[in-house]
Model the fold of this input.
Amino acid sequence: MGELRMIDSKLIDTHGRAHRDMRVSLTDRCSLRCTYCMPADFAQWIPSAELLTTDELMTVLRVSIEEGIDEVRLTGGEPLLRPDAVDVVHRINALPKPPRVSITTNGLRLAAQAGALRDAGLERVNVSLDTLDRDRFKAMTHRDRFDDVIAGLAAAKAVGLAPVKVNTVLMPGVNDDESVTMLRRALDEGWRLRFIEQMPLDAGGIWNRASMVTAERILDDLSQAFDLTPVPVRGSAPAEEFFVDGGPETVGIIASVTRPFCGNCDRMRLTADGQLRNCLFARDELDLRAVLRDETLDEASIEAEIRRRLHVSVEAKLPGHGIDDPSFIQPPRPMSAIGG
Ligand code: SF4
Done:
């Protein structure tokens, strides 16, 4: 549930927003091909030599924590495809003033790694699951891996990762008839379900505002079967939460398009190839990899320059994503190479 937390971040933008949440993409590669994210034959991956090493990543995170970042969400592509993902969690937890660590995963490798991730210090997990129907899963992801996701969710619960959140994207005429069944299953399993509006960030450029499933539609459908009451406190959380049938269980809606929440945004993003983004929809990035690999700089100068670029990025942050602006242009980098 949204919470108000004491924020002592120095990363304050010109709109008064304090940034404390860093979304870190560990890789742009993925083991699924979700239709709303990338084409089935997509293979334009970032060359491995351009990906940050774990040492480089720790340098950026150490400086970011000193500037006020206290939450790190590991994302991808699919973060658990990175061979040392468990070690990354372990090393983040070994940093001075360690941040809270969570992960957004497609769940395919979660059953095998849940225990090791928990032992390394992972607190909670978000798993993407858009349908409870195996054939529909296969059609939506081009992979017959539904059982692996369900096994991953069960493993996360079994090892005590909490909360176990499930992120669901509804597509018109594809799975938009499943909101009620998804919520019923989530209540049975103890998953914290959040529906995410489809965003104009796909690699295939297929997003169409006129046809997307909106928050209003989702709430209408859910209200046919459940009594929903708004959770009063939201804070900077992306999800608008609703108590289900009086609570304490909740369901969330992340409505970036129709109910933007940029006014309280506290997030920054680091791509797998070391580019700093002040917004999911940013068109500009600041290169941290070049600083990390600049042989003319010593460690202190590298850290100073990363610190400076963190502040430059935040100070340049726009008030919102501008999707409703006629001048809006989809960022050149797809969601799969930015991270959720
Ligand atoms: S769209 Fe950008 S500014 Fe708005 S909430 Fe997302 S990251 Fe923050």
In short: The chain has a mean pLDDT of 95.
